[in-house]
Batch of 2 targets.
Target 1
Amino acid sequence: MPQSLKSDAHEILSRFGVTATRYTDGSMDSFSPVTGEAVASVTPDTADSTATSIAKAHAAFLAWRTTPAPKRGELVRLFGEELRAAKDDLGRLVSIEAGKSPSEGAGEVQEMIDICDFAVGLSRQLYGLTIATERPGHRMMETWHPLGVVGVISAFNFPVAVWSWNTAIALVCGNSVVWKPSEKTPLTGLACQAILDRALKRFGDAPENLSQVVIGAADVGQALVDNPQVALVSATGSTRMGRIVGPRVAERFGRCILELGGNNAGIVTPSADLDMALRAVAFGAMGTAGQRCTTTRRLFVHADVYDDLVPRLKKAYASVSVGNPLTENVLVGPLIDKDAFDGMQSALSAAKNAGGTVHGGERLEVETDAAFYVKPAIVEMPSQTGPVVEETFAPILYVMRYTDLEEAIADHNAVAAGLSSAIFTTDLREMEQFLSAAGSDCGIANVNIGTSGAEIGGAFGGEKETGGGRESGSDAWKAYMRRATNTINYSRELPLAQGVVFDID
Ligand code: NAD
């Protein structure tokens, strides 16, 4: 008799040292999408307790900001070690709470480990410029300083990686962190904090309350958003959420990283390696049951290869194994909940009304009727109309035929979101056109690799209604620090700006 997900989750949390009352005595249930069962009940924070956490985090920041950056990096190095030791347990908890397959759960934890490695190196590279000055006997430079409390709000679909992308960078930059995970995934939030606590204990002399987790829904997020002691709000989730969070943070002149919805597309040109395109599109569209921000949702296929590629794609869809992601050889797991299922069904009926032909999309009875499993859907559309222009967070791939690449790129860009994009081609001109200033308008533009996923070394994020934020690699760290331009006069003169003579003798 297999162990219940509930006892499995509880055993993992107890191995991490999370006190049982934190996940058994609360008023807010946490459900596993795998079976629909409640696996824990947690105690939500209030606006007051969140404000207390923020005040404590601010006190921690005041001490942490003067710790040398490479030493701060040492904490993140230890955190990476703890994550390596915790990988199997945390990956499994991700699978239980978010419905990911074991390899996806472990893959998410690996992203956490990778960002720690990146951040450790970064802790010795937080450098600014020395800039040529027009004044004799002067030196001008820029320096980067810690910013303050970083408030992280995250979505259910990457319950642990997004926090670590923010936290590893924030910590080496000299900041403290208060994290509000999705109300759908509080347990992984508690587990992550416990893992970081292990690293903090080994590190020894970090200030208390350097990183904290607050549990709850939008109201708790709002308490982070509106608090002037939160210098940076890094919010990942729907564009709907970003529309509220962005203006509220702006109103108090806070800083914001918005990582919002995507409506990602691929273009398959006549010269494409179709075997490669088939695999990349199938994985990009169906992986994680279409619940990645970078999921492939639209596909423009050239008329010359449409009748070759699309039937093969439909075949791949028909044969894909959907089921309990914790069992072997299952590629597509459940939707997160009933709302996600209802959203998918209404998008499919709107697509039919707009002239689309739907293949798949039916609900499958797997496990219990409290869990929502679906056959991934391919919808052949006459043009980019109806629900195609919006993100539906479910496995629906809209496929359209094109004849002119310039028009396909224009259609590709004619949606509100701008996260990830891909072209499949072996033609150098087509590739360069897609990557050029007149090409894809997304934050991520790929060639012969799908839209889904990203390496931590690059800056991650998107344009337009995706929010414009960047996190993770490259120089995304700059959003987590404040920049000062310093001018030093080592001469005996005081040349005034603009040649002004100001004689006060
Ligand atoms: P969601 O917007 O419902 O919730 C995301 C988080 O925002 C949750 O923690 C939620 O409690 C919080 N929240 C909601 N309203 C808020 C408010 N008014 N004030 C403060 N906090 C608030 O999103 P979801 O359903 O959890 O996740 C799916 C969405 O997230 C999709 O649109 C997906 O594309 C997007 N996403 C984007 C990225 C990215 O990097 N661009 C990554 C993952 C997910």
Target 2
Amino acid sequence: MKDKTPVMKFGDSSRGNGEPVGYAAGTIIAAAGDNEVIAAQHCTEPGCGARFALSEQIYVCPDCGGLLDVVRGDPPDSPPEELKDIWHRRLASFDPRDRSGVWRYRELLPFAADAPIVSLAEGNTPLYDAPFSADYCKLSSLSLKHQGCNPTGSFKDTGMTTAVTQAVILGARTVVCASTGNTAASLAAYAARAHLHCAILVPRGQISHAKLAQSLDYGAAVLELDGNFDDAMRVIRELAEAPSIYLVNSINPFRIEGQKTVAAELLHQRAWRVPDHVVVPGGNLGNSSAFGKGFKELKDLGVIDRLPRLSVVQAEGAAPFARLFGGKARAAPATRAESSEAYRDLLEPIAHPQTLATAIKIGAPVSWKKALRAVLETGGSVLTVTEQEIADAKAIIGRDGVGCEPASATTVAGIKRLVADGTISRDEDVVAVLTGHLLKDTDYAINYHRKKLYIHEGDNDKTKSERRLAGTYSNPPIRVKATKAAILEGLMRHERKHKDDL
Ligand code: F0G
């Protein structure tokens, strides 16, 4: 079935049913692509493959419950070299669509030319050279793609711009999500921009204060659930059965569409040189799915000629995907398709996931099949790292002058392991994707540096001191009297402590 996205004209004051749209001037940008787009939602289950119109408000396949992909029926009109040229020229444009690091690549997106884009100029995130982190991982160089520099401080904004745009197109009144904090903050902001009602469901007491503060400030209805993220996800999916409610967790394929453009932005920043490895943290596994889809589509279009290996890192206590992948992670290319079948339906959820990296404290990741497809297609790995490794890697990333939240630091911790076991060699070209900003979780950072970071409060087998993480690279504040001599003495102490660090 082929379908054209229902189109809303810029400035249109109705949703086609006579009701006012009610969004503020300036919120909605005029046009997405320069061409009409033919695309559909496809079920990803091999035995099903059903297709549905873009205008159908569904999150999984109504026939078999499989995950959905948005698939274009026609390639963009321009050949790959011309596409690169168009995208590059847009860097010098002040058109709001071009200022967005997502909509700049709109030829990759399933939106019509006059889609009512809801944007906060997302994307445009820096790619940093990180020599200190490289040295820590025993690599000759390492780049950090800092998605934490998005408008609300996490990578979620790149998918929220497309998901909330789709919500407006569909005429939804209320947008909802379950969240460990970042999706919530992002949705709350984009819903505010579009003047939509927003309700978010978060596990009570298990998300960082900063993320909670953001959602409150952006005006969302914040519902604190007695339960964990997986409980919240289950309940929100039931709630979203009502047609006036639109679910924007990463199970929503329009989220993935926006998030996949990060692959294009990353490659563009590297003059289209494909890295050997791209490493991402894994929680609900939407991000890894999106990177996989982005790279694959760019290769299919001829924009790049090979795929980077995509590896996913999970925290040891919240690692159902890594457990599934196990030792078979490095299946030989010839057997990858086979192993993809072998893995199907095998993910065993973890009932009580545990990690201080609360963003990825998830035991039943919704998008694991898509993430599996991406890892197998690219020949990547899935691995776990310990709480200590995450904490130390985060402090090391900080020494490069780059601040991320704990979940993001799994990447550098994971790369260190992959180098140590020979999966990545010293001179390979590696990009770690940092997904959230340091300021998302300052309690964690302060506790690490004060050596007061304790793992899993529910773990009764260990004494409090056994649960304390070592402050291997800690940099605690120094208390001084208000005299010049005391300050100089404090500075000398600091210098002595850190003299071997750099
Ligand atoms: N890093 C950060 C900072 C996150 O917030 C998340 C997910 C991930 C990594 C994992 O990405 O789920 O696509 O595999 N946060 C979600 C949330 C679950 O609700 O904010 P994923």
